[in-house]
Amino acid sequence: MAIPGYQEFMLPLVQLAADGQEHKITDAIDSIADKFGISAEEREIMLPSGTQTRLYNRSTWALTYLTKSLLLSKSGRGRFQIAPRGTDVLKKNPVRIDNAFLEQFEEFRTFRNKKNNSPKTVVVTNGESIEELDPSLTPLEQVEAGYRELRETLVDELLDRVRTMKPKAFEQLVIDVLVAMGYGGSQLDAAQVVGKSGDNGIDGVIKEDRLGLDMVYVQAKRHEADIGPGAIREFVGSLGEHKANKGVFITCGGFTSGAKEAASRAHSRIVLIDGIQLSEYMIDHGVGVTDYKAYTVKKLDTDYFEGV
Q1: Torsion over CA: 201, 203, 207, 209 (sign)
Q2: What Å distances lie between residue 304 and 130, 151, 205, 296, 298, CA to CA?
Q3: pTM of whole model > 0.90?
Q4: Beta-sheet strand order (sheet of 72-76)
Q5: Under a CB-based contact definition with an 8 Å cutoff, are residues 102 and 108 in contact?
């Protein structure tokens, strides 16, 4: 039999977690495969890229959608468990959980709207609606749309992981990102001045470039809640004490409009980096991510054929 689509796995995953226990994703995948009678050979079928099995890919996408909808929650690395909303949903004995079902939840709609910027069309096959990329898009546009969707999903995954890091690990993450971006000189230089505050964030002064021609004051808060104007004013005060005119404030959450206004009015140049932007920088500069598969798109070299 063919491996079912990822939406077919949603209800079984929630039912599996109904016991309230923590489940390993790998064990859950085996359980799902048993439930659908997927053979050992079919479980080893790879994606065209050859880097991941089709069964794993579809199972983890189903899990991603369920966690974004708050039916399940990630309880640790490679683990998940049922969330209160998932328990409530099961009490209603749904016959199917799919994307259409999840649309009733605001969190899922927000997640989908954020990552689905490309036009969609709905194709009905055997009475089931399936979202596909708009066929009016060129093949290159479809590739780029798929890339954006994968990148935005990775941003969310990184942010979830960063918010659960221990303080010291978070300090190291900020050092890694700053150095990868060309700030702080070397890892050794940055480590000597970053992470001295002793609380859940970091404070320090780093080199703006490897020559140390100017210095940048850094403060980072591992907070999920939005940073308000009070924290920014305190940061500005710290800049004055250090006679610094450049600062970077990093948080896992976001910044209120009042915080952004306070930063814009400060005499010093202040850059605010929220959790999403931090995740973007991690992707752009190769921190906490690894290359998965590279696709090279070639085009005709008209110069080669000039005059032929």
Answers
A1: positive
A2: 43, 35, 52, 19, 14
A3: no
A4: 23-24, 79-82, 72-76
A5: yes
